[in-house]
Please model this.
Amino acid sequence: MCHVIVTCRSMLWTLLSIVVAFAELIAFMSADWLIGKAKPSGSEDVDNRTGGSQEPYHPTLGIYGRCTRISHMQLSRRDTLCGPYAENFNEIASGFWQATAIFLAVGIMILCAVAFVSVFTMCVQSIMKKSIFNVCGLLQGIAGLFLILGLILYPAGWGCQKAISYCGPYASAYKLGDCSLGWAFYTAIGGTILTFICAVFSAQAEIATSSDKVQEEIEEGKNLICLL
Model:
């Protein structure tokens, strides 16, 4: 018989697992890893004819994508174009970024799988006498290691030609040049830290769902058990 067991600690672990997976996925897909040096928003000819002034903007560069602004003949029309600059894996700007993409993708796939399974831990707490919480916590720890490797390798690719075109000639491995780090990089770091917190917290979720009080309510015949 399925016993639905909901505790504060198990629910918090489930929610954190889902948030971490989505945060890492959004960061990976974003082009806001590097914020390039300021560039004029349009050509001098367009601005001189319209009598407008050049308003600088900052293009952004991700692991496989980028965002830049395209000015039309009318000054009022400035479109920001975002999309992948690499049509396939081999066109990613740096070998280090290719390795980063692999490590992050593996880590994110593990986190997404754990997030999916975590939803069902309210009803199923063990498989083949193994605690799902402990297994998921172990997988989250492994995913965190993949994420760390990816984040360590990412700055090594700042010396590639693509990064130099955004960050200036002084950009090199682990040196930003004229660029600054975007929100996606910080989100990936924050998500990695939360991944390890989730891995540790999974043990607390296991303790909460297997406590003596839970066992007492199961023996009383309750199918829905909610504990603070």
Remarks:
- Residues 4-34+93-226 form a domain with the Butyryl-CoA Dehydrogenase, subunit A; domain 3 fold (CATH 1.20.140.150).
